[in-house]
Task: structure prediction
Amino acid sequence: MKKYFTFLAFILFGILTACKDDLPVQPPVTDYPAPTPYTFPVLPGFPAQNTKADNPLTIEGIELGRSLFYDPVLSGDNTQSCGSCHNAVNGFTDNGKAFSTGITGAEGTRNSMPLFNLQWNTRFFWDGRAATLRQQVLMPIQDPVEMHELLPNAIAELSQLPGYKAKFGRAFGTEDINSERIAKALEQFIFSMISGQSKHDLVLRGMASYTDSEQRGQDIFRAEFSVPGSGRPAGGDCFHCHTTVLFTNNQFANNGLDSVFTDVGYESVTNNPLDRGKFKVPSLRNIALTAPYMHDGRFTTLEEVIDHYNSGIKSSLTLDPNMKSQGSGLGLNPLQKADLVAFLKTLTDTAFVNNPQFQDPFTP
Ligand code: HEC
Ligand code: HEC
Result:
């Protein structure tokens, strides 16, 4: 037995020394252990996870993304972060403002958009000009009326800050900081922001029940339009566009806000006049938290939004075909309008907006 081991040790020694002589000394491929896969919360009724194959979500990647999201270092004068215009308590929109102000004090022309359930969205921004979230997240950093920073500056500053090299190392294996990794980390953080715990969800899961008014509101939301006085139940037709559990069909539509357009919306991306005045159909989740409403924040309250659909529809060539048949709107009575608002309020997900996972890590 002893003889056998000596023999084995001899062979092993031979192999090791041979290798040492033949191969040049290799630097380690990675400095950090593999990051920890992130387990998604299971939400009944939600579509299957839809993250990117080249950027699996990990605890360390999401954590880095959260730091970047809330770090003003990504702006030109280090005063503004993504979180400045996407505040949790407002459903990740801009603090009740119609338009956001960038670091130079310049005002943008569109209302800040809520951030959740975006892994199931197909295009980004009100006009859809970003085809992927990964492209989108680098745009506000460089936008002159937003964070107004050059990516090489942001990368240089991040490299100087204590902690970031190690955070990139933990998330991606090595300490390199580059724009692709910044985008991937922000993508991971935003993809992890899932809202599916509203009263509406609890009702679907049999864990809560609607008030009578909320129930009537949901019925109107999900019913086809019917001409008032026709004897058929009142219908809001909302579900045609604000569809599925996500409350959006991921399309672009003209919902009758204007007949002449100062902002042409989706047409600026497609160059197709048939897309004039079409905007991304937004999710209605957390809608009670995200006022003011529409791409330009023109409505202050949900009641004003319902009045628009009820009697304010403006005709134009690209107006949604279903809305064309409604004339100036739905013609609901005051009780029906109030019911619709009551239903919309059941889409508020306080567990989501208060989730510590999505809060600013820099505030004590
Ligand atoms: C100055 C305010 C401001 C800052 C800072 C800002 N955003 Fe935004 N964000 C907006 C506005 C306004 C829009 C809508 C713009 C448009 O449609 O043209 C928007 C849209 C978005 C969207 C599109 C959502 C959708 O449903 O299509 C995402 C995603 C987003 N922002 C993420 C970020 C990230 C990530 C950062 C930081 C890197 C950031 N934002 C910084 C104001 C801001
Ligand atoms: C033809 C598709 C369509 C239908 C039908 C529709 N919407 Fe919309 N909705 C949109 C689009 C598109 C926007 C964004 C328009 C914009 O900002 O220019 C929007 C915006 C909204 C907003 C504001 C969202 C925000 O984040 O600012 C609310 C609230 C809303 N809709 C509720 C409803 C309700 C309630 C109904 C039914 C009475 C309804 N919608 C029917 C397409 C539709």
